[in-house]
Amino acid sequence: MATYKCISNKIKPMSSNTSIHDNFIRGILSDKSIAVEYFKSYLPDFISRQLDFTTLTQLPDTYLSGALKKTMSDIVYSCQKTGTKKTIKVSLLIEHKSYPDQYTTIQIGGYIFSALQKQVANKEQLSLVIPVLLYHGKGKWRYRTLSDLFEEAEESWKQYIPDFEYIYNDLGALNDTAIEKLNNKFLAASVLALKHSTEKEWLEHNAVKLLILASEGTKDLQKGLIIYLYSRAKLEEEKILNLLPVPIKDTIMNSLDFYIEKGIEKGKEQVVKNLLASGKFSIAEIAGFAGVTEAFVKKIQTTLK
Q1: 16: burial class by Cβ within 10 Å (0-12, 13-18, 19+)?
Q2: Which of 23, 65, 154, 221 could form a disulfide with 217 if both were Cys (CB 3.0 to 4.6 A apart)?
């Protein structure tokens, strides 16, 4: 079999919008069943119908350089191709964006060539890389290739541009009803949450529906969606809890306790960093001011060094 690599209210957010989206999307696509459903639903038919998704296995991001790891949010899978004995390998890269960025093509190109260079260095047979762009922003996105960025270049000169196509998955163009019909209801809830991530009123009005759909996912997946929803909208906790079945209530309460606890810890960490940076206070004094142990202060101090 040929082997394919499918790349594939009162609570304040703990991190930047980019980190919130990154953590949520990586959490979703790191789950095999969710990844399979996503690939089956949104890859072009000529690709998805040739893959044996029962063989899907997540791989480490071994083809990313240190610099690219800071900018790319890829998930990598290996997957066998059906009906052939050829040892062809393909990589499917998933990169997501929550805002229009005309230079994303260059960013994706950096990944492609980084992957190919790694394959050469590892003395592997060269694998084709197929990029997938998952866009969940509100601004209008114009599909651009590298050639499109050189609008003033004469056509005869464009032959020197290392051009490529990529699969464009615009969640804003998807119909909500069609999304709800996905076989995996947790993926449906997640795609809807991503699609409407900037619409706080929509999220508040549909939170109960999303949480009920998401109840088919694992506890960890549910926790990720709950934290994502509460970070994107001012949800009235009591109002939502009163409309949900008891098992979902328990998951929400446990998740929010964890979310608040992490937020408080992050806040204390920043206070300690600021006090250490001032150079005016002892370890004991900083611990007293921040309400933490001296060991906690020393740990932050070591990290800063």
Answers
A1: exposed
A2: 221
d(CA 48, CA 130): 12
10 Å CB burial of residue 28 (0-12, 13-18, 19+) is buried
Residue pLDDT, tens place only, 171-192? 989 999 999 999 999 999 999 9
CA atoms within 13 A on the CB side of 258: 13
According to DSSP, residue 153 is labeled S
Q: What is the pTM of this model?
A: 0.70
CA distances to 32, 39, 56, 71 from 44, in Å? 19, 9, 17, 26
CA nearest to 63, candidates 5, 3, 24 = 5
